[in-house]
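Consider the tokenized backbone below.
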């Protein structure tokens, strides 16, 4: 589809140019002169009879932008350029209020593609008849870019919010895990010091308790480091997930089976990072909440999507009764949404949990 010039003139310049053409049209009886006048405007222009709403003339810029041949457009109802009834009503109301200046409406190319246009319209006299001198500026690409920009801004806001929530979760984990273990170790050491100051013997049990608390703190610290460290995806997502599954199984004693079937060896960096983090979050939730001794992770590529499934055979829960603001669910959904993906959770008490994440293939491939 042909596009108008990349940098259209300002609203004032368009308005001024239409006023000039309208003034000259009213002074000429020559149909050819009228054609030359509207042809002198480089943007799509159509002349409409207000009563019948029929097209009586148009320029080549309109032919290029909308795909209509002039000979087939003349005599047609102007509704072909304004297919939505609500837009035609808006145009009529704006015209009754004194003219149309840059009103945005939906249009349609001759081949059916949706277009967005801005409309300028002035009443004029064409060969002794009242007409509507109408300019149609194609802003389809501009609107698409604006919508994309808004979507990216919304995604960035979600990502920043998600980052803040991750920091809060890490702070809570540090307080509830590492700090508590270190505090317990300090208390045991203080008790041992007081015992030594009073001349009491220090038993091996005191040291074993301190040693156990320190080991628990180290183990928790390593888990947190794994959670915030950028995943090593240089060798690809599959290898990174194999290493993650092996590490979590070793650290937490859960038997994790990983199956994969990808047609492409590599996905986009954004998709690989998001999928890795989602697997990590799912397995952490299994370890924390499910009481399951085994889990399965499946990563497959279909003709239209990348599908990630994580399943456990733990205690299960009612998905509708879980707080939807719980961080784990927010994390999964926000990461999926950044790739236009979806998250489906199936679970019931006593029947484990299955989480299926689907990402459109065009959002996941390089």
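A designed sequence for it:
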């Amino acid at each position: 589809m042909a596009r108008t010039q990349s940098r259209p003139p300002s609203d004032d310049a368009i308005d001024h140019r239409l006023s000039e053409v309208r003034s000259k049209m009213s002074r000429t009886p020559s149909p050819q002169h009228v054609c030359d006048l509207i042809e002198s405007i480089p943007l799509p222009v159509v002349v409409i009879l207000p009563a019948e709403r029929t097209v009586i003339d148009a320029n080549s810029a309109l032919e290029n932008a909308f795909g209509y041949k002039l000979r087939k457009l003349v005599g047609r109802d102007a509704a072909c350029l304004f297919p939505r009834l609500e837009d035609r009503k808006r145009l009529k109301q704006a015209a009754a209020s004194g003219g149309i200046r840059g009103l945005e409406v939906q249009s349609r190319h001759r081949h059916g593609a949706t277009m967005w246009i801005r409309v300028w319209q002035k009443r004029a006299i064409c060969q002794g008849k009242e007409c509507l001198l109408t300019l149609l500026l194609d802003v389809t690409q501009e609107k698409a870019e604006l919508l994309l920009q808004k979507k990216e801004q919304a995604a960035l806001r979600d990502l920043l919010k998600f980052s803040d929530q991750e920091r809060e979760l890490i702070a809570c984990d540090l307080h509830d895990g590492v700090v508590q273990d270190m505090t317990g170790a300090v208390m045991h050491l203080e008790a041992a010091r007081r015992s030594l100051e009073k001349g009491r013997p220090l038993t091996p049990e005191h040291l074993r308790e301190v040693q156990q608390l320190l080991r628990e703190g180290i183990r928790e610290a390593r888990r947190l480091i794994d959670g915030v460290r950028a995943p090593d995806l240089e060798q690809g997502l599959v290898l990174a997930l194999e290493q993650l599954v092996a590490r979590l199984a070793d650290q937490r004693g859960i038997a994790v089976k990983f199956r994969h079937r990808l047609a492409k060896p590599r996905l986009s960096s954004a998709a690989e990072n998001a999928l890795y983090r989602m697997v990590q979050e799912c397995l952490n939730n299994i370890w924390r909440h499910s009481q399951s001794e085994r889990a399965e992770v499946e990563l497959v590529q279909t003709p239209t999507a990348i599908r990630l499934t994580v399943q456990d055979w733990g205690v299960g829960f009612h998905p509708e009764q879980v707080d939807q603001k719980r961080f784990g669910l927010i994390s999964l959904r926000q990461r999926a949404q950044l790739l236009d993906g979806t998250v489906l959770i199936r679970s019931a008490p006593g029947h484990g949990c299955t989480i299926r994440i689907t990402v459109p293939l065009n959002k996941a491939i390089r």
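Residues 1-5 have pLDDT under 50 and may be disordered.
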